[in-house]
Amino acid sequence: MWLKCNVDEAFHDCNHLTSFVCCVRDSCGQFIHAQTKWQRENMTVLEGEAVALLDVIHFANVTRWDRVSFESDSATLVQVLSSPDHCDSEFYAIVSNIIYQLSLHSNFKTKFVR
């Protein structure tokens, strides 16, 4: 059975906060888990999307979930995860960590959703 994990982030510029949210459902659509977190830090939209995904991948690993499809509304992030070209920036440092974590779990995958 595959789990579907929708991941997103939001920015609150006036408070310098970035919040992360995920919702996990099973293959029948039944609710499994949801979580929210926030960080007092300004980051770019791509960095926020990447940090949110990395955090949820760590959570899935700790809870020993198998077969997880992580869904993001960031086409850029999902494309970069399968690209061999990475620059030297904070965003690509996070992406490298995501790629490494995904390589440890063959049953974890990422997918773009609108």
Describe this structure in words.
This protein is α/β, with parallel strands linked by helices and 114 residues long. It has one domain (3-112): Nucleotidyltransferase, domain 5. 35% of the residues lie in helices and 33% in strands. It has three helices and five strands; from the N terminus they run βββαβααβ. The chain has a five-stranded mixed beta sheet with strand order 3-2-1-4-5, covered by helices on one side. It is globular and about 40 Å long.
- Count of alpha/pi helices: 3
Number of strands: 5
Tell me the β content: 25-35%
CATH fold node name: Nucleotidyltransferase, domain 5
Shape: globular
State the end-to-end distance.
23 Å
Please mark out the parts with pLDDT under 50 across 5 or more consecutive residues, or reply none: none
CATH 2nd-level architecture: 2-Layer Sandwich
Biggest sheet: strand arrangement: 3-2-1-4-5
Per-chain topology:
Layout: E1 3-12, E2 17-25, E3 31-39, H1 45-62, E4 68-72, H2 75-81, H3 90-104, E5 108-112
Parallel strand pairs: 1-4, 4-5
Antiparallel strand pairs: 1-2, 2-3
Helix pairs in contact: 1-3
Provide a quick synopsis of the model.
This protein has 114 residues and is of the alpha/beta class.
What descriptors fit this protein?
globular, 5-stranded mixed sheet, alpha/beta, 114 residues, Nucleotidyltransferase, domain 5
